[in-house]
Amino acid sequence: MNAMSLRDLALILFTVASLAAGQICFKLASPAFAVFSVRSLFAPIFIVALVIYAVATVMWVIALSRVPLTVAYPLVALSYLIVPLLARAFLGEQLTWQTFAGAAVIIAGILLSISGAKHP
Fold it and tell me: Distance between CA 90 and CA 98 in Å, rounded?
């Protein structure tokens, strides 16, 4: 098994962090969608979220051109740790011990999954 390059790992982690940031922006945009109208689609924070997702998607495709999906995709599960941390930091949402316990299980699963994956 060849190790994933630091550059490839950084690219994947940037993508995951971007998707997590996009989720925070979508949450911030959600009040504009409480009573949906076409105007909701033009809320600045919603547009920012879409741009972040677009950039993240391009970065993800670049990452997939370098790393097998079986290696890259498990790392997306890091968003289950990153999003709650960002929600706490930027939205004041509460975190429980279950959030951290779940994150620990997910991280263990990621490590188990990628340790057995074959790298080209």
Answer: 20
What SS3 class is residue 83?
A: helix
For residue 35, give Cα distances in angstroms to 25, 27, 46, 48. Answer: 18, 15, 15, 20
HEC secondary structure over 25-82: HHHHHHHHHCCCCHHHHHCHHHHHHHHHHHHHHHHHHHHHHHCCHHHHHHHHCCHHHH
Digit-by-digit pLDDT tens for the chain (120 residues) are 456 899 999 999 999 999 999 999 999 999 988 888 888 899 999 999 999 999 999 999 999 999 999 889 999 999 999 999 999 999 999 999 999 999 999 999 999 988 876 655
Give the separation between CA 61 and CA 40, rounded to whole angstroms.
29
